[in-house]
Amino acid sequence: MSAFLAPYGDYGVEWLPLLLRAMMNTALLSVCAFVLAFVFGLLLSLCQKSSFAALRYFAALYVTIVRGVPLLAVLFLLYFGLPGIGIVFDAFGAAIAGLALCFAAQVAELFRAGLKAIPAGQSEAALAAGFTPAQSFVLIILPQVARVILAPMIITFVSLLKDSSLASLITVNELVLTGRSMATEYFLPLQIYIAVGLCYFAIAWPFSVLSRRLALPATR
Amino acid sequence: MNALLSVAGLRKSYGPIEVLKGIDFDVAPGEKIALIGPSGSGKSTCLRCMNFLEKPSAGEIRLAGERIGVRNGNVMSDRQLAPQRAEMGMVFQLFNLWPHLSVTENVAIAARKVRGLPAAEARELALEMLAKVHMTHRADASPLELSGGQQQRVAIARALAQKPKLMLFDEPTSALDPELVQEVLKVMEELAAEGRTMLIVTHEIAFARDIADRVLFLDGGTIVEAGPARQVITAPREARTQAFLNKIRH
Amino acid sequence: MTGFSIFFSVVEGLVAGLGVTAFVTIASLALATAFGFFLALLRQFAGIKLIDPAIDACCEILCNVPALTHLFILYFGLASIGVKLTSITAAVLGLGLIGAAITCAIFRAGFAALPGGQAEAALAAGLTPLQTIFEILTPQAMRIALPGLGNYAVQLLKDTSVVSAIAAPEIMFFARSMVTSSFQTTMIYATAAALYLLLSLPLMQATRFLERRYGRLKG
């Protein structure tokens, strides 16, 4: 056991700054991708509820494709494939785009479920009170939807954070790739990858706990 | 005369709140006892202590002389309690039929699993019990397809299939739409006429008056009044009993 | 036409990885469901004071660290201390354990959705706790859990692409090796994506069916 722990004592001081910088990259990547995914997801959700059939079909097709295609394939296509037809993403950009495109579908699904959870009587009461549909949506429905989807949205963020590890496979210098180069340099893959795991845990676990605290008990 | 069920010094507390403050009563074989009282009086809790679905804080409960729920000074585990519980048939307010089993399977499963009856015999027994509650025409239906009254009758058949010494009813008609209450009360009347020993928690005062031999009026965790059914309900001695009955009637 | 022949050779190359993709998916699913169910039973019913927090802690670790990291620990990390797992073993073990944490939560939610009266009625009828769990609670909890398991399976199929990073010879692995020896990058990855999509369509259909059939079922 002490043989296992020894390298942390020997190299911990060297490793810490490397890992911290990598954590920041991972965090930055995840946050940017999530913001983008949120926006895309919102747009997708509007398409789903649109009165234009073409938009609804597009949204349904998009969600089905994203559900069936691995994130890794999307990342590879964006980073390695697109240059072949003239579009060049840098690694970080490709990672953000890929994560955002894939998670937009999850976000849209959360919006859909959140809207469904609000009883029809809510908007009826608002309209009966003289609110316009737009006011009813912004003042009455949206705040309630926000409360319902807050916890699942945090869980989606944690998922995205974990999937950001795949960016290491398209050369983004986040936690896993940093871990890999450290592992080749120090020949201590077990200790290093466990340290990488702990770094992810340190970021993700507080969010997981937060989402559980915020989760509303299921009504109905 | 030897009591079938004897309850002595029954107390139950949930933390600092004492719900049962010392209950004593006996039930003779073939006797029908109705427990009535306002909500919060502890009557359901009292009933559920009989088969230790609630664990009493103090007191002794004996069925046919055998101490229920406690062995060598220790409260028994659910596993140890199983044989004792099998001697008592319980009917719940919310029926609690098992939706993944058919009506017949609901009635037969305890006979198969607890008493080890072979499947064919258990099914025969189940159909016999379903006939008693007039539900054989839905023997292969799913509980989800039945009305509340039908489900409760199946639940009664399920309890009867245990061939219990004692039947416990926990507000059996309180969750039923009014027009379905009678079909269940009628079945309970028929069972009473067979000479079964029954302990019934109910809000149906007229039913209690006509079917029960004795009535216990619980209020605030104690038995305020106990006596022959007709007397307690039509001419109670205690003021609290009278006040409760007035509220129910109006 | 050369376009078509290239396409066919790409498909041929990818399909070589189909067996491993299928195997890893099915094996991980089996491990995850069996072990997850066992953990759910322990956590929900055994009431052993020390095991509950231990199970919770393991699930937290499995669920808050990316699969890629777990796989690297199992494949590269263990190898460095002498425990050499094959890439497929590490893949199934890693994905299976993570999946067990996921299915454990799904099964526990299934049990929790059952009204308390179900177990009470069983105990009151004289069934032992074990009989109650297996005859009364599990059949119902299973049905409630099926849609969640279906969704997990759909996700799992996609996640197997990650095991290409520890050299498991599945679809994505063959895609990457083909890319290095040809210049048809877009075609190769797009075809790989399409292949995964094709494989997941029946799973998605099955899940939709399960959701319709059991989505609203409660005790």
What are the defining features of this structure?
heterotrimer; B: 250 residues; alpha/beta; six-stranded mixed sheet; 9 helices; C: 219 residues; mainly alpha; MetI-like fold; 80% helix; elongated
How many beta strands in the DSSP annotation of chain B? 12
Overall 3D form of chain B: globular
Radius of gyration of chain C over all CA atoms, rounded: 21 Å
The assigned structural class of chain C equals: mainly alpha
How far apart are the termini of chain B?
Answer: 39 Å
Instruction: State mean pLDDT of chain C (0 to 100 scale).
Output: 92
Share in helix of chain C: over 70%
The termini of chain C sit apart by 60 Å
CATH homologous superfamily of chain C, by name?
MetI-like
| Number of DSSP helical runs of chain B | 9
Radius of gyration of chain B: 18 Å
Which regions of chain C are unreliable across 5 or more consecutive residues at pLDDT < 50?
Answer: none
Which blocks of ≥5 consecutive residues of chain B have pLDDT under 50?
none
- The assigned structural class of chain B equals alpha/beta
Tell me what the structure shows.
The complex is a heterotrimer of chains A (220), B (250) and C (219). Chain A contains 8 helices and no strands. Chain A has 220 residues and is an all-alpha fold. Chain A is flat. Chain B has helices at 43-50, 78-86, 103-113, 119-132, 148-160, 178-193, 205-211, 229-234, 239-249, and strands at residues 5-14, 17-27, 32-36, 58-63, 66-67, 70-71, 74-75, 88-91, 166-170, 198-201, 214-219, 222-228. Chain B has 250 residues and is α/β, with parallel strands linked by helices. Chain C has 219 residues and is mostly helical. Chain C has a single domain (2-214), classed as MetI-like (MetI-like fold), CATH 1.10.3720. In chain C, α4 (67-79) packs across α5 (87-112) and α7 runs antiparallel to α9 (185-214). Chains A and C meet through α2, α3, α6, α7 and α8 of A and α3, α4, α7, α8 and α9 of C.
